[in-house]
Amino acid sequence: MTPAEHLYNESQIRSRNVVERTYGVWKNRFPILSKKKLLSVSRVQAVIVACAVLHNIAIDMRDDHFEVIHPVDEPDEHVVSQSRVENVGDTTVRSNLINDYFASLL
After folding, report:
1. Fewest Cβ atoms closer than 10 Å to its Cβ: which of 21, 50, 76, 97?
2. 6 domain residue, yes or no
3. Number of domains forming the structure of the chain
4. Residues with Cβ within 8 Å of residue 106, at least 6 apart in sequence
5. Residue 77 counted as domain residue
6. Tens place of pLDDT for every residue, the chain, 106 residues?
């Protein structure tokens, strides 16, 4: 694995951790997000957007129920995978991203 690929993997892992924790916070705050067959597919996007807006309002209002999400300094060991780069669908896009962006960060 090249240094640029390693940097790409670290970036993806850190982003994924934050996103997954955010989903967990939203599911705790808005139980409707945990119910799989309650909504029609056509309404799901509107419900998710509404939850995001309400969540942001709660943050602005300093609601006590809000769980602060801190950035992760080190990824969890069970999440780190050397094959993370290989799991991306379009390898051409991934390769261009690694070579054009992440290699320039080194």
Report:
1. 76
2. yes
3. 1
4. 3, 4, 7
5. no
6. 899 999 999 999 999 999 999 889 888 889 888 887 777 888 888 998 999 999 999 889 988 765 555 444 444 433 333 334 344 456 788 888 898 888 888 8
